[in-house]
Amino acid sequence: MNESIESLLNDQIKYEAQASMQYLAMASWADTKGYSGVADFFYSQSEEERLHMTKLMKFVNERSGNVIVPALEQPKADFDSLLALFEKFLKSEIFVTEQINKVIYECLQQKDYNVHNFMQWYVTEQLEEEATARTLLDKLNILGEDRSGYYLFDKDIKDFIGSGTN
Ligand code: OFO
Predict the structure, then answer these.
(1) What is the torsion angle, in degrees rounded to the nearest 10, for the CA atoms of residue 72, residue 74, residue 76 and residue 77?
(2) Percent of the chain scored above 70 by pLDDT?
(3) Which of 16, 108, 116, 142 is deepest in the core (most CB within 10 A)?
(4) What 3-state class would DSSP assign to 35?
(5) How far is CA 37 from CA 27, 73, 137, 152, 158, in A?
(6) Least confident of 31-35, 126-130, 140-144, 162-166
(7) Contact 17/72 with Cβ under 8 angstroms?
């Protein structure tokens, strides 16, 4: 496997792992605040990101690359509000999308169409996850200061669980 692509794929493994841990911290925060629907949503998102990570690891191994299981930073664990929680979610997904685009750019530079093809699954996944994050943020923005709407938000978010492509 081309060295620069291998290195970018290892970076991506780290970003997926980091997203998984970040969503776990967000699930835990929601749990302690009594938002059980939001907690379930982020526990599920955390599992999905873990799967994204292992899918990449298996792919690198199949291609006889060298996988590096990464050390991770402590995720952000405290949030001022539900809105801040979902802003963090969108920011995290946008970051992951940008990194995936970097891998794809390098694949084209190196003419590695095999990795390019593999990464298309991630492109589709990111489109869906960013759309979900934006929709949920829109809903919270509509609610504004109306905290009574949080009860329904917490109930309705269950419809978004497991809406990814895996
Ligand atoms: Fe949504 O981060 Fe994985 O791909």
Answers:
(1) 130
(2) 98
(3) 16
(4) coil
(5) 9, 26, 15, 10, 6
(6) 162-166
(7) yes
Burial tier of 134 (Cβ tally within 10 Å: 0-12, 13-18, 19+): middle
With 60 as the cut, is the pLDDT of residue 16 above it?
yes
Q: Are 82 and 38 in contact (CB under 8 A)?
A: yes
Closest to 27 measured CA to CA, from 17, 19, 13, 38 = 38
**Distance in angstroms (rounded) separating the CA atoms of residues 97 and 5:** 16
Question: Which ligand 1 atom sits nearest the alpha carbon of residue 129?
Answer: 1
If you average pLDDT over residues 46-67, what whole number do you get?
Answer: 97
Give the distance between the most distant pair of CA atoms in the chain: 54
Nearest atom of ligand 1 to the alpha carbon of 53:
3
Print burial letters for 69-91: b (CB count within 10 Å at least 16), e (below 16): eeeeeebeeebeebeebbbbbbe
Residues with CB under 6 A from ligand 1: 16, 19, 49, 52, 93, 96, 122, 125-126, 129
As a whole number of angstroms, the distance between CA 57 and CA 89 comes to: 24
